[in-house]
Amino acid sequence: MNVWKLLTGLCVACVAAPLAAADLDYGKPGEPVKLVIGHPSHYTAIWSVHVLHGKELWKKHLPPGSTVEYQIGLQGSVIVNNMLAGKQHIGYLGDIPAIVSTTKEDVADVRMVATLGLGHDQCNVFLVRNDAPRFRDTAEAVKWIEGKQMAIPKGSCADRFAEVIFQAGKVKPAAYLNQNIEVITSGFRAGKLDATVIWEPVASRLAKEGLARRVLTGVNFNELDGAFLTMRADLIKQRPDVVKGWLNAELDAQLFLSDARNAPEVMRWVKTYTTGMEDKYLWAALYGTYPADQGGSARRLMFPFVFSPEALALIDKATTFLHSIKGIHVAKLRPEAVMPQFAQQVLSERKVATPVGNVSALPDAAMSQ
Fold it and tell me: Which of 244, 231, 232, 156 has the alpha carbon at shortest distance from 196?
């Protein structure tokens, strides 16, 4: 399977609506349940699913006899459409596809139930060609974009951050092309592109392969990116025991990720469930230490688990962006699109405070430990 096609999974401003799906039957509370989980392979902010999968954390929280199938979506829109069609029941999605999924209630009702991870440099990574000038500061880097050739997957979290950069510097590239990861990579190799914004681990791969240079991130603009856990509303209605069970397993995964001593095991699971990406790129995406002049941050991911004020602000910003580009038909999500009560209840019952943890940047030497 082409890894670059897998990595296009965050560009889902437009999702083709399948035929309306009737409510599914998940059985009665306490009975075994068969779940299908959809997730992209590579986007770093959803990597808790790899830990949950590898360690089978759900087994101690779901009714005995339950089964779980994991399906990788070639792109975020595939996961959204599968959830709408009833082929998948729980989705691990970046902020853009998660929001889109909740706006198709005429097809099927999907809700956001928890925050997976928030960061400043998981999607919001700006790269330039290697022979670009060494910029003195953020303002100079932004000004350089004026009149340049830039490509990006349109309708994605990267597109949203690029618009933040353009507005902050009042700049406009000569070309702002809608290209996928494979074409963007080829463009840098051929010297046809000046800049892009892209997500991890693609950003680390482009930089470490010497195809582009990282110059700034959401750190420079205090702009968050992130991912959210989504579930079908019929599952939530029929099986609140399963909702809480899965959230407990997800909490276990986030707590595990937050302990730096677990980094080698985390990477083992990540490598098991991803393809076509070298170990050093995967490590750099989640644990890599980047300098301040590249928009580096000591904290690569934070786990509020619940819908913290920061998470809700990100949802609002991303919703506004999607509506502005006609990616969704609403300017504001319906109130029930975000259901905070289950995650809040799980934290309360387990006496865990939010944020539940963080992933901190680690030295490269830790990768071989």
Answer: 156
Measured in residues, the chain has a length of: 369
The confidence band for 277, taking pLDDT boundaries of 50, 70 and 90, is confident
pLDDT at 3: 41
Model confidence at 121: pLDDT above 60: yes
At residue 353, what is the residue type? Answer: A
Cβ neighbors of 78 (< 8 A, separation 6 or more) are: 9, 38
Whole-number pLDDT of residue 52: 97
If one counts every other C-beta atom within 10 angstroms of the C-beta of residue 254, the result is 27
Model pLDDT for residues 161-212, shown as the tens digit of each residue: 999 999 999 999 999 999 999 999 999 999 999 999 999 999 999 999 999 9
Burial category of 1 from C-beta neighbours within 10 Å (exposed 0-12, middle 13-18, buried 19 and up): exposed
